[in-house]
Amino acid sequence: MKISKISGEVKEIFKKTAKKLSGTTKREYIATITIELLDGNARKAERVFGWGRATVKKGMRELATGIKCIDNYSARGNKKTEEKIPQLVDDIRAIADPKSQADPNFQTPFAYTRITAKAVRQALIDEKGYTDDELPCENTIGYILNRLGY
Q1: Do 45 and 30 form a contact (C-beta atoms < 8 A)?
Q2: How far, in Å, are 120, 133, 135 from residue 124 at the CA level?
Q3: Could you give the C-alpha distances from 24 to 27, 45, 71, 86, in angstroms and in order?
Q4: Which residues fall within 8 angstroms of residue 43, CB to CB, at 6 or more apart?
Q5: Tens-of-pLDDT digits for all 150 residues of the chain?
Q6: Distant-in-sequence contacts of 125-133, Cβ < 8 A, 24+ apart
Q7: Which domains, from first to last, does the chain contain?
Q8: Cα separation, 107 vs 6, whole angstroms
Q9: Using an 8 Å Cβ cutoff, are 62 and 69 in contact?
Q10: 124 and 91 Cβ atoms separated by less than 8 Å
Protein backbone atom coordinates (compact mmCIF):
# COMPACT_ATOMS: atom_id res chain seq x y z
CA MET A 1 0.00 0.00 0.00
CA LYS A 2 1.31 3.43 -0.90
CA ILE A 3 0.86 6.66 0.99
CA SER A 4 -1.26 8.24 -1.74
CA LYS A 5 -3.98 5.66 -1.03
CA ILE A 6 -4.16 6.51 2.68
CA SER A 7 -6.59 9.14 3.92
CA GLY A 8 -5.59 12.18 5.92
CA GLU A 9 -7.27 10.74 9.03
CA VAL A 10 -5.04 7.68 8.98
CA LYS A 11 -1.97 9.87 8.50
CA GLU A 12 -2.99 11.84 11.60
CA ILE A 13 -3.35 8.59 13.55
CA PHE A 14 0.20 7.62 12.54
CA LYS A 15 1.49 11.04 13.67
CA LYS A 16 -0.36 10.93 17.01
CA THR A 17 0.84 7.41 17.72
CA ALA A 18 4.44 8.39 17.00
CA LYS A 19 4.15 11.36 19.38
CA LYS A 20 3.08 9.07 22.21
CA LEU A 21 6.15 6.86 21.79
CA SER A 22 9.72 7.77 22.66
CA GLY A 23 13.27 6.62 22.10
CA THR A 24 13.93 3.31 20.40
CA THR A 25 10.27 2.29 20.15
CA LYS A 26 9.38 5.56 18.40
CA ARG A 27 12.24 5.19 15.91
CA GLU A 28 11.29 1.57 15.24
CA TYR A 29 7.66 2.58 14.63
CA ILE A 30 8.64 5.48 12.37
CA ALA A 31 11.09 3.31 10.42
CA THR A 32 8.53 0.54 9.92
CA ILE A 33 5.92 2.98 8.58
CA THR A 34 8.52 4.60 6.33
CA ILE A 35 9.68 1.26 4.92
CA GLU A 36 6.16 -0.12 4.41
CA LEU A 37 4.41 2.97 3.07
CA LEU A 38 7.11 5.28 1.72
CA ASP A 39 9.57 2.84 0.13
CA GLY A 40 12.10 3.56 2.88
CA ASN A 41 12.45 7.19 1.81
CA ALA A 42 13.26 9.37 4.84
CA ARG A 43 12.67 12.55 2.86
CA LYS A 44 9.09 11.50 2.10
CA ALA A 45 8.55 10.68 5.78
CA GLU A 46 9.70 14.17 6.66
CA ARG A 47 7.38 15.78 4.12
CA VAL A 48 4.31 13.62 4.78
CA PHE A 49 4.48 13.10 8.55
CA GLY A 50 6.86 15.80 9.75
CA TRP A 51 9.33 13.30 11.23
CA GLY A 52 13.00 14.25 11.15
CA ARG A 53 15.06 12.56 8.44
CA ALA A 54 17.90 11.82 10.84
CA THR A 55 15.49 10.09 13.22
CA VAL A 56 13.95 8.04 10.42
CA LYS A 57 17.38 7.01 9.14
CA LYS A 58 18.54 6.09 12.64
CA GLY A 59 15.41 3.96 13.10
CA MET A 60 15.95 2.20 9.78
CA ARG A 61 19.58 1.47 10.72
CA GLU A 62 18.40 0.09 14.06
CA LEU A 63 15.92 -2.19 12.28
CA ALA A 64 18.50 -3.34 9.75
CA THR A 65 21.29 -4.06 12.22
CA GLY A 66 19.26 -5.04 15.27
CA ILE A 67 21.42 -2.75 17.40
CA LYS A 68 19.48 -0.24 19.49
CA CYS A 69 20.98 3.22 19.97
CA ILE A 70 20.86 4.37 23.58
CA ASP A 71 19.93 8.03 24.01
CA ASN A 72 21.89 10.05 26.54
CA TYR A 73 19.04 12.23 27.84
CA SER A 74 20.84 13.00 31.09
CA ALA A 75 23.61 14.84 29.24
CA ARG A 76 21.14 17.32 27.79
CA GLY A 77 20.12 20.60 29.31
CA ASN A 78 21.84 23.35 31.18
CA LYS A 79 24.49 22.46 33.75
CA LYS A 80 24.24 23.77 37.29
CA THR A 81 26.01 27.04 37.97
CA GLU A 82 28.20 25.28 40.54
CA GLU A 83 29.56 23.09 37.74
CA LYS A 84 30.14 26.04 35.43
CA ILE A 85 31.90 28.15 38.10
CA PRO A 86 33.44 25.68 40.59
CA GLN A 87 34.94 28.39 42.84
CA LEU A 88 31.51 29.97 43.36
CA VAL A 89 30.43 27.52 46.09
CA ASP A 90 33.49 28.25 48.23
CA ASP A 91 33.05 31.99 47.74
CA ILE A 92 29.36 31.85 48.72
CA ARG A 93 30.22 29.83 51.83
CA ALA A 94 32.91 32.34 52.77
CA ILE A 95 30.32 35.11 52.59
CA ALA A 96 27.35 33.28 54.19
CA ASP A 97 29.08 31.33 57.01
CA PRO A 98 30.01 34.31 59.20
CA LYS A 99 26.43 35.59 58.96
CA SER A 100 24.62 32.33 59.72
CA GLN A 101 23.66 30.33 62.79
CA ALA A 102 22.19 26.89 63.52
CA ASP A 103 18.46 26.43 64.00
CA PRO A 104 17.83 27.29 67.68
CA ASN A 105 15.26 24.47 68.00
CA PHE A 106 17.33 21.98 65.95
CA GLN A 107 14.25 21.14 63.88
CA THR A 108 15.74 21.69 60.42
CA PRO A 109 19.12 20.90 58.91
CA PHE A 110 19.28 24.38 57.39
CA ALA A 111 21.41 27.10 58.91
CA TYR A 112 19.67 30.43 59.40
CA THR A 113 21.43 33.22 57.59
CA ARG A 114 20.70 36.90 57.92
CA ILE A 115 21.95 37.70 54.43
CA THR A 116 19.73 37.69 51.34
CA ALA A 117 20.54 36.25 47.95
CA LYS A 118 20.72 39.79 46.59
CA ALA A 119 23.26 40.74 49.26
CA VAL A 120 25.31 37.57 48.58
CA ARG A 121 25.39 38.41 44.88
CA GLN A 122 26.51 41.97 45.60
CA ALA A 123 29.16 40.72 48.04
CA LEU A 124 30.49 38.35 45.37
CA ILE A 125 30.91 41.34 43.07
CA ASP A 126 32.38 43.65 45.72
CA GLU A 127 34.54 41.26 47.76
CA LYS A 128 35.39 38.38 45.44
CA GLY A 129 35.91 40.27 42.19
CA TYR A 130 33.19 38.69 40.06
CA THR A 131 31.60 40.76 37.33
CA ASP A 132 27.87 41.28 37.01
CA ASP A 133 27.78 39.39 33.71
CA GLU A 134 29.52 36.22 34.90
CA LEU A 135 27.29 35.73 37.97
CA PRO A 136 23.83 34.16 37.81
CA CYS A 137 20.71 36.06 38.81
CA GLU A 138 19.53 36.49 42.41
CA ASN A 139 17.04 33.63 42.15
CA THR A 140 19.80 31.22 41.14
CA ILE A 141 21.99 32.44 44.01
CA GLY A 142 19.01 31.71 46.29
CA TYR A 143 18.72 28.18 44.90
CA ILE A 144 22.44 27.64 45.44
CA LEU A 145 22.12 28.87 49.04
CA ASN A 146 19.30 26.37 49.60
CA ARG A 147 21.33 23.52 48.10
CA LEU A 148 24.21 24.46 50.39
CA GLY A 149 21.92 24.30 53.42
CA TYR A 150 21.37 28.01 54.18
Answers
A1: yes
A2: 6, 12, 8
A3: 5, 17, 8, 36
A4: 53
A5: 566 677 788 889 999 999 999 889 999 999 999 999 999 999 999 998 999 999 999 999 999 999 988 887 777 888 889 999 999 999 999 999 888 877 677 777 777 778 899 999 999 999 999 999 999 999 999 999 999 888
A6: 127/95, 128/91, 128/94, 128/95, 130/91
A7: 3-65 (no CATH), 81-147 (1.10.10)
A8: 66
A9: yes
A10: yes
Q: Rounded CA gap, 100 and 114, in Å?
A: 6
- CA 25/CA 44 separation, integer angstroms: 20
**Contact assessment for residue 42 and residue 53, using Cβ atoms and an 8 Å cutoff:** yes
102 near 112, Cβ under 8 Å? yes
Three state DSSP letters for 89-133? HHHHHHHHHHHEECCCCCCCCCCEECCCHHHHHHHHHHHHCCCCC
For the entire predicted model, the pTM comes to: 0.52
